[in-house]
Write a structure and sequence with these properties.
This protein is α/β, with parallel strands linked by helices. The chain has one domain: Rossmann fold (3-Layer(aba) Sandwich). It is 26% helix and 19% strand. Strands 4-1-5-6-7-8 form a six-stranded mixed beta sheet.
Length: 156
């Protein structure tokens, strides 16, 4: 040995990329309140009726401890190339603790990282319209209320 001490910094565990899915994901990053999480899932699965039409949120629930407490920026870093969806939804600490369960919607394409919160009953409208490119992410983001939560578009 030449007297030099070689130190290797401990490697931080690499977080796996988000899986490619058929439908956009609702990713869970907060694992502290299971009853709140179950309530959110139930609300997201519920049909939304508008007049004679019934709509559903076509999403996939991703619950993996590897994503525990990840920030929006950390989630953006693990979105694979050619992901296939232009947005994702996040059930984080703020969503779990908000009385309205306001879920974080994150843009992955146009204004990557732009986000807003939405109540569960509006996730269906967001998912349906963004998935078929009927509307842009920004249209929803710009329609938030004074609490920065999307609760739907004003009725004409």
């Amino acid at each position: 040995m030449n007297g030099c001490l070689s130190l290797t910094a401990p490697k931080t565990p690499k977080v796996k990329q988000l899986p490619k899915t058929t439908n956009p994901v609702v990713i869970r990053t907060d694992f502290e309140n299971q009853p709140a999480r179950e309530a959110i899932c139930e609300l997201l699965r519920a049909p939304v009726r508008e007049g004679s039409e019934t709509f559903y949120a076509y999403v996939e629930f991703l619950e993996d401890n590897d994503y525990r407490n990840l920030t929006k920026e950390e989630l953006l870093a693990i979105v694979p190339r050619n992901y296939g969806h232009s947005f994702l939804f996040v059930v984080d600490r703020a969503a779990i603790t908000n009385p309205d369960f306001a879920i974080l919607a994150v843009d992955l394409v146009e204004s990557r990282g732009r986000s807003f919160r939405a109540i569960p009953s509006q996730i269906q409208s967001i998912e349906n319209n963004l998935s078929i490119a009927n509307m842009d992410f920004e249209e929803f983001a710009e329609a938030v209320d004074r609490d920065e939560i999307f609760r739907g578009f004003p009725r004409a």
